Amino acid sequence: MGETSGKPAHLSSSVPDPWSVPVLPKPRRPHPKVVVKADLLPAVSVLSTAGLLGFPLAWLWSRLAPPQRMRVINDHGGLAPLELESWHRFDDLAIYGFLALGAGLLIGIVTWLLRERRGPVVLIAATGGAALAGWLGTTMGVSFANGRYEIGAAPAVGDIIAKAPQIESTWIMLAAPLMTSLAYTLLTAWNGREDLGRRLG
């Protein structure tokens, strides 16, 4: 009753087993900190470069979006769409949405490839740049389209004219930044490293 594994009770608790392997505590690795100061200048470059994508986005939309064929119904310039032409209002919005999603995906992937600058600072800049591109795309796109389908002379009653495509919902501007943040977040989760692979080698 007073012995454990053939040893006296007063020795079993104070004398370590010569065959036991000591378990050393695992060294704690310091968690990587968020780099802010060093990433500010690259973040500004990312924001401005991503925002410039709004110009090709606007030009491409103005070339792809279909106009509405309208009939002049009175002397005051009243217009009425031809049969099924009003559907192009949705087509214009959908085309811009797909183009904006593609631009947002491109911004997110290219920003992620800036390996030494990965982190929340550059992510915020990329999302802001995508939002700027979305705003430029909607405003400049409508301007490009109005210039393309400009009517030179006043039409007469009964004439059929092509009305420039329009973007009738401002919420579509969120498509590009949402896709940018989603793409960058998915790539971050797929990476799985604490420092996101910032340290090369």
Q: What does this protein structure show overall?
A:
This protein is mainly alpha-helical and 201 residues long. The chain has six helices and five strands. α2 runs parallel beside α5 (120-148), α3 (54-64) runs antiparallel to α4 and α4 (88-112) runs antiparallel to α5 (120-148). The longest helix has 29 residues, at 120-148. It is elongated and about 100 Å long.
In short, what is this structure?
The protein is mostly helical and 201 residues long. The chain is built from six helices and five strands.
Low-pLDDT regions: none
Rg result: 31 Å
Number of helices: 6
Strand order of the largest sheet: 4-3-5
Strand fraction = 5-15%
Structural class: mainly alpha
| Multimeric status of the protein | single chain
Helix content: 40-55%
List keywords for this structure.
3-stranded antiparallel sheet; mainly alpha; membrane; 201 residues; transmembrane helix
Compile the SSE list and pairings:
Layout: E1 3-4, E2 7-8, H1 9-12, H2 37-52, H3 54-64, E3 68-72, E4 79-81, H4 88-112, H5 120-148, E5 160-163, H6 175-191
Antiparallel strand pairs: 1-2, 3-4, 3-5
Helix pairs in contact: 2-5, 3-4, 3-5, 4-5, 4-6, 5-6
Keywords: Membrane, Transmembrane, Transmembrane helix
Transmembrane segments: 38-61, 93-114, 121-145, 171-190
InterPro entries: DUF2567
